[in-house]
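S.,

As promised, the phenylalanine run. Input:
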Amino acid sequence: MAINRTSSHGEWSSRTAFILAATGSAVGLGNIWKFPYITGENGGGAFVIIYILCVIFIGIPIMLAEVYLGKRGRLNPIASIKYISDKEKRSKNWRIIGFMGILSGILILSYYAVIAGWTMAYSVRTAFGNLNNIDATGAAAMFESLVSDPERLLAWHTIFIIITAIVVAKGVKSGLESAVVRLMPALLVLLLALVIFSAIEGEFYDGLRFMLYPDFSQITWKSVLIAMGQAFFSLSLGMGALMVYGSYLSSDISIPQTCVIVALLDTTVALLAGLAIFPIVISSGLEMSQGPGLIFQTLTVAFASMPGGQLFGTIFFILLIFAAWTSSISLIEPMIIWLIEKYNVTRIKAATIATSFAWFLGIGTIVSFNIGKDIKIFNMTIFEMLDYLTSNILLPMGGILITIFVGWLISKEHIDSELKIKSKIIKLIWYFSARVIAPIAVIFVMLNALGFNINFFL
Ligand code: PHE
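Predicted complex:
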């Protein structure tokens, strides 16, 4: 039986508003910055296929489960889960999902803001024409000079955190809907234009081949874990962001269709980004596996040789800042709602506390590109470690707990009435994915990546 609890934080004005906000959360640096560089590092085509399989069989089922929890609980992630476990007579320890999510959000934001800062720096550089006539070597030198300067990185990081703090302090919903409705289509159009440019000017065939031709000899369990972690990261799963957005959803809205639309949009943007980047990487002789600087170096070369590249490039980087910004809002929102509900503080105070925390932690990432380059934890820099810990461990673990909780411990009638899946077959597929495929796949991949070498097929 569906209940009609309403959120004390208000509701989305429509289903479209929710789709927009969730897409705003999903589409961000993960699609345009991270997807191309990790695909480059992990050998291309085969990695892309594994990524897409993870989105379909793990991402979408978990997304439904997560939005369901938010829509039913209507509170911050910790309290929502506590409320639901009370109702279902389950242990209240499931709240751990909420705690882990809040922690993941802050940790991710701490480095996300640093990279968003790079995007800001590049938008200014492009606007002032610093990148005109730059070649691949010049682009590499420029990137190096930016990341080797901790003060400059700190300044951009601080600016980005302040902008995020201002918006979240005002309340997420005012402004977010209208910003996303205008910016997302613009970003898509610009990405398409970039793909066309790259088809004409770059080595399009080779780029396409790199991205689509599967060479499974390049794949290790670690790369499968990275592909799966990227599915969680890119769809904003496993940390409560969509739970919070789901809690503003009015009770008569059906969840599955909405989630599929968001996943489709998110994957389209990532694939377009790859199509735009790889042909240029090849034609300008850059390295596929050069890591986090990949798009900054490739795109600057592209903009430099493109007619109107200065204007186009500036608009592109500005849109990317907005995309990063709508994602960062959703990274911090679970903690903010929790602070407000639990400690009864004002939104402004909650926003100040949460963003200061993320700002402070971000210093670790900043120095990991320069003065702290040699600080290694498990052979990873601070940035790499934070990224690995969040995308490949915390988010998937949050995801497993969410599917097990929703798939196995909540009454079926209740799920059916909230999810509102009409088709019997789709319902069956969802239950099977959420109960069996998603949790087993995540555990299997994590254990193998840790070196346990489990193989069901031998
Ligand atoms: N999905 C966002 C991106 O791809 C990042 C993000 C991760 C946002 C987790 C919220 C939660 O850029």
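The mean pLDDT is 90. Residues 25-26, 28-31, 108, 233-234, 236, 239, 241, 327, 330-331 surround phenylalanine (CB under 6 Å).

- D.
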